[in-house]
Design brief:
The structure holds 3 protein chains of 3 kinds.
Chain A (H helix, E strand, L loop, with lengths): L13 H7 L11 H27 L9 H4 L2 H26 L3 H32 L8 H34 L6 H27 L4
Chain B lengths: L17 H23 L8 H23 L7 H25 L40
Chain C lengths: L14 H5 L4 H30 L9 H36 L7 H23 L24 H29 L12 H33 L12 H34 L7 H14 L15 H29 L8 H23 L2 H7 L3 H31 L5 H27 L16 H31 L37 H6 L28 H15 L7 H23 L4
Helix pairs in contact in C: 2-3, 2-4, 2-14, 3-4, 3-5, 3-7, 3-12, 4-5, 4-16, 5-6, 5-16, 6-7, 6-8, 7-10, 7-12, 8-9, 9-10, 10-12, 10-13, 12-13, 13-14, 16-17
Classes of the chains: A mainly alpha, B mainly alpha, C mainly alpha.
């Protein structure tokens, strides 16, 4: 949403639409915004790499308070993983129908993505609040909790940004209707969304399923 | 289902169809279910922790590859994007694997390949197995 | 200055035009000015420290103040001087060198600058309330924890670095995309000027290394604000984790500082010796090798913490390995000069001195790569001498060379060569008088970061000499300012191509028009501009007349004030963390308001016509 390609214009404007069809050819043939998103993803690899590494180093070092296997609810986390995966499926469909110029289906699947993200955040809220209220595991209870909340909280923040982005796309599409099939912007948003999903795939395995490892 | 050419207005090859996406969605769900099932039945099926780590990591990498390769259509895109993702991932993995080895010198002997020290191999209920904290390691040896 | 031809319906001059500018050249100038001003502050820090250390048992400044000066000098010189001055060159010259009309994302470019400026001001505002961070530029835990630093001093450092890091990350993504996606037709990767290559590798390092310090800073600010125990051994935290994370970022950071300088020097040496850069392809590969290996050597900053023999040995070997591509570069620079028709302009002097001083610093660096020797040098003035040779004798000298080299292109006027040479020699002599004796002091056992010392240590003479050198350098900096302003008003008119240059920026008017190229050039050679001027046997060619162009086809991005608003929102988010002293409601309110400003201006930005 904050990307403004020199050649291809910005999202949400008729201007962008007009430019998109005959954008200046780039050296790689990839749109600048899309290229920048992949660059950001490379950067995020290190961000989440640091967070996951930090979690793995710290998870068994808690001195007092609950330990990972005492609090994790694998069944519920599996459900939220499923939810996020399905929102990724909705995302590819949204992009597909945007490319196919099918307005209602595009809007429907974009809404599904946003709802999927919100449900995931709901799961996370439930998880965090259970940890805090039921298990007495606050942010600073022990080092395991701190590194866990830091990692999953950072992922949750990414999901939040993604939800806001999806809602922005949805609202823009509802306002502008057939005039706005900004495929590149939807694709870039989709790349972000899929990456956040991919990170969760790793987190689900390395953080939750490896709880005894 | 609409399976017309989706790559509209792009210079790219046509990629993906709703059918393919749905098949992938099903496979992704199945793998997630399988992961959950292995976790739940790790004791009854007598899987060792080493095998479990290997299996679960492999499964999650399959999911990773499916989402990146098809949903993010990396397979069909410019090669430089693939290099970006794998460059970032490999460098980050290498860096933090090395970091993990350095800061866990006692648990982990890199040269003997025992980086993932497994606790809880006992076939017992989840809650009976403590994951000990190791406060002794908090103080690094000073030269 | 600029004789812009196309009005897009907004003013071209005045403060508002600079605040809303999205022109990469103006943003480059803003970066350069800010960086030079921050250098003055950081330089004064250094002078105060040297004054204090001139005599044993001196008490001009207190120990606490001294610690603050050490911290702010290091932090400012790295994050507020060398990095942004390099960024100034990236901004101004990358699009010109690759034949692009602008960077890929002009407004993001403006955003980077404003975030950088606000971050720098936030860091420096610590002087105003007298809570200067006093923890070293690396801010090792657990000195940074609340119990040892209860005031907000460390918060200034953490949030300053956090915000500066964000600015660099956005800029890095922007330039990475620009270089790989917006080159002129025909400019393949191996036809890019070498400065563009080192810029590219620098952006990769920034993109990959910055998230690590971001996470480390978040952890530290959580420790301080929310009572987590990441770096508190009492809570199971791991103190060395900070050192590891810091240096996982910090060592690539070293190459982030030096690689742009290497690129600038390569350009200057090739132009001034009127020869192609020797071994261009090898230079490219060695830059990439340096960038890659830069990730594999972080722990050589930590040989004395007891990582064990294997870690020490492997990191030592990796560190020695880096000397290979670096050495290749040094030989290539010498070979570039060899047999050339060298013009000893000020820029050339700076570039040549870079090669010498950097080699010197590199040699003491190789000494540190051996853990047993490093154990002896660690935390002594020998290390101070080493990194000043690579960063000051290296990076800063090259950046000053870059200013002399490209000043005519940016302003249309030459810098005064006589003053320039006097300034160069003042810098060169002052620098060596300051830092060479530090090798002796280090070997004699003088530790780093001490605010005073006893008179019977045998350190008195060399400390006095060092201080004298520092003042000589300050005189040089003053002369530079004189030369800068004098040349701005009175300098000789430069013309398009004063150095008989090799790369595309010299084909443009000085200063370049706002849209850069009338017609995007088609590139056929490395050193394209040289090949347009000269045939293979060195004869001057008759230049083809520049193609006609239609001014109405040029699309300039509109100016925007959302970048500065968004940057201010980010500053507010950070500032909220300073305010618990005024009550949590005010603190959280400020951060939340900042977040709303970011969100609101983000939307306004997205729906604005670019």
């Amino acid at each position: 949403m904050m990307l403004d390609s020199h050649h291809a214009g910005s999202p949400g404007t008729a201007h962008a639409e007009a430019h998109e069809a005959h954008a200046h050819p780039t050296n790689t043939g990839v749109d600048n915004r899309k290229f920048a998103m992949w660059t950001l993803i490379a950067s995020e690899c290190f961000l989440f790499g640091t967070l996951i590494g930090n979690y793995l180093i710290h998870k068994d070092r808690g001195i007092s308070g609950p330990k990972p296997h005492e609090v994790y609810q694998i069944d519920i986390t599996t459900l939220s993983t499923f939810d996020l995966l399905m929102s990724s499926v909705a995302m590819v469909l949204a992009l597909y129908y945007c490319n196919a110029r099918r307005l209602r289906l595009f809007q429907f699947w974009t809404a599904v993505v946003a709802v999927g993200g919100i449900i995931f955040l709901g799961f996370q809220y439930y998880e965090f609040s259970t940890f805090v209220v039921h298990d007495n595991l606050g942010l600073s209870t022990n080092i395991f909790a701190s590194s866990f909340y830091l990692l999953t909280g950072c992922h949750g923040a990414h999901v939040t940004v993604g939800v806001i982005w999806m809602l922005a796309i949805l609202i823009t599409s509802l306002i502008k209707g057939e005039k706005w099939f900004n495929s590149t912007m939807v694709e870039v948003a989709g790349l972000y969304w899929h990456f956040v999903d991919v990170v969760w795939i790793i987190i689900f395995t390395v953080v939750y399923l490896f709880v005894y490892v | 289902m609409n399976t017309q050419d989706a790559a509209h207005g792009h210079g790219e090859k046509a990629h993906g169809s709703v059918t393919l996406y749905m098949v992938f969605a099903f496979v992704l769900c199945a793998i997630t279910f399988l992961e959950w099932w292995i976790f739940k039945h790790r004791n009854s099926i007598g899987i060792t922790n080493h095998t479990m780590v290997f299996t679960l990591l492999s499964l999650s990498l399959v999911k990773f590859a499916m989402v990146c390769g098809w949903y993010m259509h990396l397979r069909y895109d410019h090669k430089s994007l693939m290099k970006l993702l794998f460059g970032g991932m490999l460098l980050a993995s290498g860096t933090f694997l090395a970091l993990g080895i350095i800061v866990h010198p006692k648990e982990c002997d890199a040269l003997k390949g025992e980086c993932f020290k497994i606790r809880d191999p006992a076939p017992a209920a989840d809650t009976t197995v403590p994951a000990e904290a190791k406060p002794g390691e908090a103080a690094p040896t000073a030269p | 200055m600029s004789a812009s031809t196309h009005s897009a319906g907004y003013s071209k001059t005045g403060i508002w035009s600079w605040i809303t500018t999205v022109d990469h050249k103006r943003i480059g100038i803003l970066y350069a000015i800010s960086a030079l001003l921050f250098m003055v502050i950081a330089g004064i820090d250094a002078l105060l420290m040297r004054t204090q250390l001139a005599m044993p048992n001196n008490d001009i400044i207190s120990a606490e103040t001294y610690n603050g000066l050490v911290t702010m000098h290091g932090t400012s010189m790295i994050f507020l001087f060398i990095m942004p001055l390099s960024a100034a060159f990236f901004n101004y010259f990358t699009p010109l060198l690759i034949g692009a009309p602008d960077v890929a994302f002009p407004r993001l470019n403006a955003l980077s600058f404003w975030i950088f400026l606000f971050g720098g001001l936030l860091l420096n505002s610590s002087y105003l309330i007298g809570q200067v961070p006093a923890v070293g530029w690396f801010a090792y835990a657990n000195l940074t924890l609340k119990q040892y630093n209860p005031t907000h001093s460390v918060d200034f450092w953490v949030w300053g670095i956090q915000i500066l890091g964000l600015a660099s990350l956005i800029a890095a993504i922007n330039f990475f995309t620009t270089i790989l996606n917006m080159r002129a037709p025909g400019m393949t990767l191996l036809k890019m000027p070498i400065f563009v290559w080192t810029t590219l590798v620098t952006q990769v390092l920034l993109i990959l290394a910055l998230p690590v310090i971001t996470v480390a800073c978040v952890m530290l600010s959580f420790d301080r604000a929310f009572g987590t125990g990441f770096f508190d051994p009492g809570a199971g935290g791991y103190v060395l984790m900070w050192e590891h994370l810091f240096w996982v970022f910090g060592h690539p950071e070293v190459y982030i500082l030096i690689l742009p300088a290497m690129g600038i020097v390569s350009e200057i040496l090739a132009t001034m010796s009127r020869k192609p850069l020797f071994g261009y392809t090898v230079m490219v590969y060695s830059s990439c090798a340096i960038g890659f290996l830069g990730f594999a050597v972080w722990a050589h900053h930590m040989f004395t913490v007891g990582m064990g023999p294997w870690a020490n040995a492997l990191f030592s070997a990796a560190t020695m390995l880096i000397a290979v591509p670096t050495g290749v570069k040094i030989f290539n620079w010498i070979s570039t000069l060899w047999g050339g028709k060298i013009r000893f302009t000020t820029a050339a002097l700076y570039a040549i001195s870079f090669v010498a001083m950097f080699t010197f610093g590199g040699l003491s660096g190789i000494m540190h790569s051996s853990p047993p020797i490093d154990t002896q040098h660690h935390d002594s003035y020998f290390v101070v001498a080493h990194f000043h040779y690579v960063l000051y004798g290296g990076a800063v000298m090259a950046l000053f060379g870059g200013i002399y080299y490209w000043f005519p292109k940016v302003t249309g006027r030459m810098m005064n060569e006589t003053l320039g040479k006097v300034q160069f020699w003042l810098y060169m002599i002052g620098f060596n008088v300051t830092f060479f004796p530090m090798h002796f002091l280090g070997v004699q056992g003088m530790p780093r970061r001490i605010y005073t010392y006893a008179p019977d240590q045998g350190w008195n003479l060399w400390n006095l000499v060092c201080t004298g050198g520092a003042y000589l350098t300050a005189l040089g900096a003053f002369l530079f300012a004189v030369n800068f302003f004098w040349s701005l008003w009175k300098g000789k008119i430069a013309g398009n191509d004063p150095w008989d240059g090799r790369t595309l920026e010299w084909s443009l008017p000085s200063p370049p028009l706002e849209h850069n190229f009338d017609v995007i050039p088609t590139v056929t050679h490395l050193d394209e501009w040289w090949h347009r001027k000269y045939s293979e046997d060195g004869k001057r060619k008759v230049m083809a007349p520049s193609p006609k162009f239609d001014p109405s086809t040029i699309h300039l991005p509109n100016p925007s004030f959302w970048p500065i608003v968004l940057a201010f929102g980010i500053l507010m988010i950070g500032t909220g963390f300073f305010l618990p002293g005024f009550g949590n409601a005010i603190a959280i309110g400020t951060s939340v308001t900042g977040a709303l400003v970011v969100l609101g201006s983000g939307f306004a930005w997205a729906y604005e016509k670019p």
